[in-house]
Amino acid sequence: MAVQNLICITGLFLTGYHKNNGVRYFGLFLINIGASGCIPGVLAYSANNITTHTKRAVSTAVIIAAGGVGGIFATMVYRQKDAPK
Fold it and tell me: What is the pTM of this model?
């Protein structure tokens, strides 16, 4: 998970601070690779550290719901005036 997080952070820096649009586009791929690969690890880590089946099910649901809310929030972050020109 640490390597995948480093890949994601590298992609975030490339997308946020590089001038070349091709490199920024590549950074988006790195973000997706790093973030998507962490999901099974986070779910497995959570499930292995919670004792009862009920708590495990609720924990998994909360993690997946938070990811869904994050996806909805991400579509609302960029305003029209921040669109690329």
Answer: 0.65
